[in-house]
Amino acid sequence: MSRHAPALRDQNPVFIPGPTNMPEALRHAMNTPTSDHRARDFAEFLGPLLADLKTVFKTETGQIVTFPGSGTGGWEAAVSNTLSPGDKVLIARYGMFSHRWIDLCQRHGLDVEIIDCVWGTGAPADRFGERLGADADHTIKAVLVTHNETATGVKSDIGAVRAAMNAAGHPALLMVDAVSSLASMDFRMDDWGVDLAVTGSQKGFMLATGIAIVGVSQKAMAAMETATLPRTYFDFRDMTQANARGGYPYTPPLQLLHGLRASVDMLMAEGLDNVFARHHRMAEGVRRAVAAWGMKLCAAEPSLYSDTVSAIYVPDGFDSNRLTDHAYDTYGMSFGVGLGQMNGRAFRIGHLGSLTEPMALSGLATIEMAMADLGYPITLGSGVAAAQEFWRAGGKVAAAQAAA
Ligand SMILES: *Cc1c(COP(=O)(O)O)cnc(C)c1O
Asked: Residue 394: what pLDDT?
């Protein structure tokens, strides 16, 4: 229970890595009256929306399907439409989200081959390449990669995984969890040869939870012809055929789709490159603060740093759950807890979606107060000052240092 009245507390931004803060304009865009989803104007609305989503996924050859659901539903759609019971899939585990995707595959009766990696590292393209190179009769049907592991704040190199697959001459499908990267960090479905790209409405798109959005390549569409895992609600064929006629196979989440229309417009108006640059600037300021506190990121090295979430180890002897509870109870501000083996050892600052520097400064200042209250060895204002210096310089400090 927060010491602030809920109506006041709810004005604070959240620093969890999804659901993310909603811009007022998007919240209002979702406030639409009921309308008839079988009327012609729905068809006129849906077609251009799906077409514009392709731009966000950076695909010209693929198709976009949307389902009422969350990102997890998108995983299920990707797997159940393209694979058959007993199919072998290859996946690396380096955090809670890759772990959960493994669980979903196992429950679908797939033969899941796991490459276990140290949490804090990313997708091991070289180990994928080795394994695929040894799979001469192509028993591996799909390679599954979590682009941005939200549990550890690690971004993986999808292009490198694709290159390893190509070098091995392997025809497996490439499925990518882009739930916490799409529309906030660069994602290139076509360039990286991604066959299935999964996201949800409540992260980079800054909306309420409730739409799973999946990019599907032509190769993945073809795989559907022979894939025999059961699917009904998430059937790509039902969805794409209904979409082609301008509708949904069942009742669409109308208000969310209106929100999605406004979100895509907002992203396009800013320009995707500017969206990515903004996320990088936001993340880099947060990382400066973490360094000023003398604390460490879970991500093992700079090339792996996520621009959407930072997972931060607390010093030995401290419990990160107490910190996140205290920040919420005392100051009414939410930060991400440590997940899985990070539980108690790390907390997370989500910095994706709708955030400005002043909003982010309020988060850094608040977590500093919470840390000071609990006796952490930090100096109040140190992280805030480091971020201020960086943002005050327009985020140019990073560029100067990178060039040096
Ligand atoms: C949030 C998230 C998910 C789960 O998505 P839901 O919308 O909660 O079902 C999956 N993968 C990653 C990387 C995520 O960040």
From this structure: 87
Could you give the 3-state DSSP secondary structure of residue 63? Answer: strand
Ligand 1 contact, 177 CB (< 6 A): yes
Residues 37 and 114 in one domain: yes
Residues of the chain with pLDDT under 70: 1-2, 397-404
Q: Would you say the CB of residue 101 lies under 6 angstroms from ligand 1?
A: no
Q: Is residue 16 part of a domain?
A: no
Q: Is 59 in the pocket of ligand 1 (CB under 6 A)?
A: no
From 248, 268, 288, the end of a domain falls on 268
Closest CA to 174 of 140, 145, 206, 207: 145
Ligand 1 contacts CB of residue 350 (under 6 A)? no
| CB of residue 70 inside a 6 A radius of ligand 1 | yes
Q: What is the CATH number of the domain that holds 364?
A: 3.90.1150.10
Q: What pLDDT was estimated at residue 2?
A: 66
41 and 116 share a domain? yes
Please report the pLDDT score of residue 397 as a whole number.
Answer: 55
**Cα separations in angstroms, 197 against 22, 71, 100, 187, 192:** 23, 10, 16, 9, 11
Tell me how crowded residue 357 is: count the other CB atoms within 10 A of its CB: 18
User: What share of the chain in percent tops pLDDT 70?
Assistant: 98
Calculate how far, in angstroms, residue 44's C-alpha sits from the geometric centre of ligand 1.
30
Domain identity same for 291 and 189: no
Bond before 230 cis per omega within 30 degrees: no
What tokens does 62 get? Answer: 């693929």
76 Cβ inside 6 Å of ligand 1 = no
Our count of domains for the chain comes to 2
Identify the pLDDT of residue 398: 53
State pLDDT tens for residues 335-347: 999 999 999 999 9
Residue 71 shares a structural domain with residue 195? yes
- As a whole number, the mean pLDDT across the chain is 96
Which residue, by CA, sits nearest to atom 2 of ligand 1? 179
Nearest Cα residue to atom 6 of ligand 1: 71
Q: Mutate which of 103, 177, 182 to test ligand 1's pocket (most atoms within 8 Å of Cβ)?
A: 177
